[in-house]
Automatic annotation (TrEMBL):
SMART domains membership: HAMP, HATPase_c, HisKA
Source organism: Rhizobium loti (Mesorhizobium loti)
Protein name, entry field: histidine kinase
Entry's localization field: Membrane
Family annotation (Pfam families): HAMP, HATPase_c, HisKA
Domain Histidine kinase stretches: 274-491
Any one Gene Ontology cellular component term annotated for this protein: plasma membrane
Top EC class, one word: transferase
Predominant place of localization: membrane
EC number: 2.7.13.3
Domain of life: Bacteria
C-alpha cells in the first residue's frame, strides 16, 4: 500500500527519522566549522612560533654585524626553497631586499603582528605570469608605494601573516609566512567533512527508505490482521517473519494472548453447553420428584423422604456449580487462593487417611508409598481437592477388577519433576482418544452411569495442575489406569 509524503510524515518512524537527520546535520555542520577553525588556529600558532624563531635568528645576525650582515642573511634565506617571507625596506617603504615583490598597502606601516592576513606577491611572480600569458617580455622592477598598491589591486596574490619590526636606523624588517598550507589544509578538512556529511545523510535516507518502508509494511500487516481479529475471526494471528526482532516478539506475545483468549472463549462455550445439557437432567428430575410428591395423597414420611431427596439433589447441583466455577477460575489463571510451600507427602498421607474407610467399605486395598518430603510451590487445599477426586475415581472404578481391587498412591522425583501417581487395577481406559476426552467437563465414559458423579473430577484436577504450572497425564496401567500429577520441583537456595 503506497503512502503519500504527507501520510508518511504522519508516522512516528518518519518523524523520528527526520528529527534524527536534522539533529545529525546540525551536529555535523558544527563539527565542520569547529574542526576547520581549530586546525587553522593550530597552524597559525605554529606559524607564529616559526616566525618568532626566525626573528630571533635575524636579531642575532644584526647584533653580530649590523645591517650588512642582516641583509646578507636575509638574501641567503629568501633564496632557499620553501623560504618564509623576508623583506627589508627603508623608512619610506622602499623595498631594499627580500623575496617579496609587492604588499598590500598599509602592511608595514604598523609595527608588530599583522592583525589580519594580507595579500602579497613574491619576487618574480608578476613577470612569470606575464611570460605565461605572452603579454610582455619585460622585466619588472620591485614595486613600491603606489606601484605596489596597483599591482596588489590588479593581480591576486597570496595571503600571509607577518611580524613587522622597525630597526634602530628606522629601517623596516618584515618576516612572515605564507598561509597557503593552512588554507589548503582547512579546505581539505572542510571538503572531507562535507563529503562525509553528504554520504552519511544519503546513507541515512537510504536506510530510512528501505528499513523504514519495511517497518511500515509490517505495521500495516499487523493492523490488517488486527482488523480481521476485531471483526470476530479469533483464529487469525499476527504475522511472524522469523527475524526475531521487536515486531516478532510483539506478534508472538499477542498471538499467545489470542490463543489464550480463544481457549477461554472455547471453555466458556463448553460451560454454557454443559450447563444447558448436563444440568438439565438433574433439574428435570427434581421437578418430576416434586410434582410426583404433590400429586395424590401420601404419608408424612413420604413427603419427608421426597424433601430429603430434593435437598440431596440440590446439594449435588451446588457442588457441580462450585466445581464449574473453580475450573473456570483456575483455567483463566485467576484464583484468590494463596500459594506457598506444600509438602506433597503430607497431602498424600492426609488423603489416604481420609479415604481409607471408604476404600475398606468398598473392599478396595488403598496403599500409599511415601518416603521423605516432596516440596512444591502451590496451594494445599487445591492440590488436596484434586488428589481426592482422583483417589475417589480410582476407588470407584477399581471395584470391577477381576482380581482383588487395589489403589496405589506413590511419589517420586524424576527429571526435575515430582510425580504423584494414583494407579488402580480396574478396567481402565484402553482407548487413547477416550483417555484424552476423560479430562473434559461432564465427560463420563461409563455407559451405564452406575457410579455416582458429575464428570468434573478429572477436569478439576487438570485445571489445578494448569494453575500449578504442571500437567495431568492419564496412562494405561495394564491393568487399570494410572493418573499422574507432575509438579515442577521446588528449588531451595
Amino acid at each position: 500500500m503506497a503512502l503519500s509524503v504527507p501520510a508518511i510524515m504522519k508516522t512516528t518512524a518518519a518523524r523520528l527519522s527526520a528529527l534524527y537527520l536534522l539533529l545529525f546535520a546540525l551536529c555535523a555542520v558544527l563539527l565542520v566549522f569547529y574542526m576547520t577553525s581549530l586546525s587553522a588556529r593550530m597552524l597559525t600558532a605554529q606559524t607564529q612560533e616559526t616566525i618568532n624563531d626566525e626573528v630571533l635568528g635575524l636579531a642575532r645576525a644584526y647584533q653580530r654585524g649590523g645591517l650588512p650582515v642582516l641583509v646578507r642573511v636575509v638574501e641567503n634565506r629568501s633564496r632557499q626553497p620553501g623560504a618564509n617571507l623576508y623583506l627589508i625596506a627603508d623608512a619610506n617603504g622602499q623595498i631594499l631586499t627580500g623575496n617579496v615583490q609587492s604588499l598590500e598597502p598599509g602592511v608595514i606601516d604598523t609595527e608588530g603582528w599583522t592583525t589580519e592576513p594580507f595579500s602579497y606577491k613574491r619576487f618574480g611572480e608578476g613577470e612569470l605570469d606575464r611570460l605565461r600569458s605572452g603579454t610582455s617580455d619585460q622585466t619588472t622592477a620591485p614595486a613600491t608605494g603606489d606601484n605596489a598598491a596597483q599591482q596588489a589591486e590588479g593581480e591576486q596574490g597570496h595571503n600571509a601573516i607577518a611580524l613587522v619590526l622597525r630597526l634602530p636606523n628606522q629601517m623596516i624588517m618584515l618576516v612572515g609566512r605564507d598561509l597557503g598550507e593552512p588554507e589548503r589544509f582547512r579546505a581539505v578538512i572542510r571538503r572531507a567533512l562535507t563529503l562525509a556529511l553528504g554520504m552519511m545523510g544519503l546513507g541515512g535516507l537510504l536506510i530510512w527508505f528501505f528499513v523504514g518502508r519495511a517497518a511500515l509494511k509490517r505495521i500495516d500487516s499487523v493492523s490488517e490482521a488486527s482488523r480481521r481479529i476485531m471483526g470476530g475471526d479469533l483464529s487469525g494471528r499476527l504475522p511472524v517473519t522469523g527475524a526475531g526482532d521487536e515486531f516478532d516478539r510483539l506478534s508472538e506475545n499477542l498471538n499467545s494472548m489470542l490463543a489464550r483468549i480463544a481457549t477461554l472463549n472455547e471453555g466458556l462455550k463448553q460451560v454454557s453447553d454443559n450447563i444447558a445439557h448436563d444440568l438439565k437432567t438433574p433439574l428435570t428430575r427434581l421437578r418430576n420428584r416434586a410434582e410426583a410428591t404433590l400429586s395424590g395423597k401420601h404419608r408424612p414420611a413420604d413427603y419427608r423422604q421426597a424433601l430429603e431427596g430434593t435437598i440431596a439433589e440440590s446439594d449435588q447441583l451446588i457442588k457441580t456449580f462450585n466445581a464449574i466455577l473453580m475450573i473456570s477460575r483456575l483455567e483463566a489463571g485467576y484464583s484468590s487462593e494463596h500459594t506457598n510451600r506444600v509438602d506433597l507427602a503430607a497431602a498424600v498421607r492426609d488423603v489416604a487417611e481420609l479415604y481409607e474407610p471408604v476404600a475398606e467399605e468398598a473392599g478396595v486395598s488403598l496403599e500409599a508409598e511415601v518416603n521423605g518430603a516432596f516440596l512444591v510451590d502451590g496451594n494445599r487445599e487445591l492440590i488436596g481437592q484434586a488428589l481426592s477426586n482422583i483417589v475417589d475415581n480410582a476407588i470407584k472404578y477399581s471395584t470391577d477388577s477381576t482380581s482383588k481391587p487395589a489403589v496405589r498412591v506413590a511419589l517420586e522425583r524424576t527429571n526435575g519433576e515430582i510425580r504423584l501417581c494414583v494407579a488402580d487395577n480396574g478396567q481402565g481406559i484402553p482407548d487413547d482418544a477416550d483417555r484424552a476426552r476423560a479430562t473434559e467437563r461432564f465427560v463420563r465414559l461409563e455407559k451405564s452411569r452406575s457410579q455416582p458423579g458429575s464428570g468434573l473430577g478429572l477436569s478439576l484436577a487438570k485445571a489445578v495442575m494448569t494453575f500449578h504450572y504442571g500437567r495431568l497425564d492419564l496412562l494405561p496401567g495394564n491393568p487399570g489406569l494410572s493418573v499422574v500429577m507432575s509438579f515442577p520441583a521446588r528449588e531451595d537456595h
